Amino acid sequence: GVAREFDGMNTAMLTLTASHQNAKGGWRCPADHMRDIMEGYDAARKQLHQVLSGRRWEYARVWEPHADGYGHLHIAVFVEDDGDDLDAGDFEPVMRSHVENCDPAGSKAHAVDGDAVSVRDDVENLGSYISEYIGIFGDETLNRPMTEQMFYAVTWATNTRRVDFSNGAQDLMAREQFRRETGLNPEDRGGEMMERWKDGGDPDGEDNDSGQGWEVRQICTVNSGRPEYADPTTGGVETTAIAGRSGVDPPPQIQ
């Protein structure tokens, strides 16, 4: 998708981490660890805009668990690079900015000549590339190792999105999905067909909107991992408000 839209593309993968231990050698709170990395990321993202000024680029941000349950952050950067002159050294200011703004982060772990930065020119499908880092999606959470469950608990407690994309990257992926599902180009009929598809209608036909609003056609409950379906028009379906709902909502999201 991205390769189709860009005139030559290179992909840089930046990995941001921080120490899991405090100054006394004890384990740090995983939530504080994740927040520290996000603080470094916020500074690094601003530096990324400066480094890539004048270029066309998009990014995806992916959290991945370590074997011990702590998280580290990948930033996949997709850069239009028809001159093929992008290299890992270009991102040294970005990595340095993270280290300077994340106290537990070390310079050695974020050196551009190590594993923290890699540049590739053979990535054509953004979704497939990112899926290499989120391959455990789709598995039953409670069947995963306890360290991964700890990681999930930390992302919930901090209200941190595990995967996030730039607005432009989301649009590029939607355009590629449209091509695959319809065999058409997003530009056909001035983009009207893609807009109809995004709204859930038939690109070549009607969108089935009768103007009568929405309706509930089926209700599904899941008990012991097995879904049970009910037709609300036949009765036997009860709904109720959840008492104390505000007390179980996640805390404010990390920005």
Please tell me about this protein's structure.
Residues 180-201 have a biased composition (Basic and acidic residues). With 255 residues, the protein is of the alpha+beta class. Helices cover 30% and strands 17% of the residues. The protein contains seven helices and seven strands, in the order αβαββαβααβααββ. The chain has helices spanning 2-5, 30-51, 92-101, 126-131, 146-157, 167-182, 192-198; strands at residues 9-16, 57-65, 71-80, 117-120, 163-165, 219-223, 226-230. It has a five-stranded antiparallel β-sheet with strand order 4-1-3-2-5. A two-stranded antiparallel ribbon has the order 6-7. Strand 6 and strand 7 (226-230) form a beta hairpin. Helix 2 runs antiparallel to helix 3. The chain starts with a helix and ends in a 25-residue tail after the last strand.
Task: Output the number of helix runs.
Answer: 7
Q: Strand content of the residues, in percent? A: 15-25%
Radius of gyration equals: 22 Å
Let me know the largest β-sheet. Answer: 5 strands, antiparallel
Helix content: 25-40%
The oligomerization state is single chain
Strand order within the widest beta sheet: 4-1-3-2-5
Q: What class would the helix/strand composition place it in? A: alpha+beta
Distance N to C terminus? 28 Å
Task: Report mean pLDDT, rounded to a whole number.
Answer: 77
How many β strands by DSSP? 7
Shape annotation: flat
**Order of helices and strands, N to C?**
HEHEEHEHHEHHEE
Which residue ranges are poorly predicted, with pLDDT under 50 across at least 5 consecutive positions? none
Protein name: Replication protein
Region (Disordered): 180-255
Biased composition (Basic and acidic residues): 180-201
Pfam families: DUF1424 (PF07232)
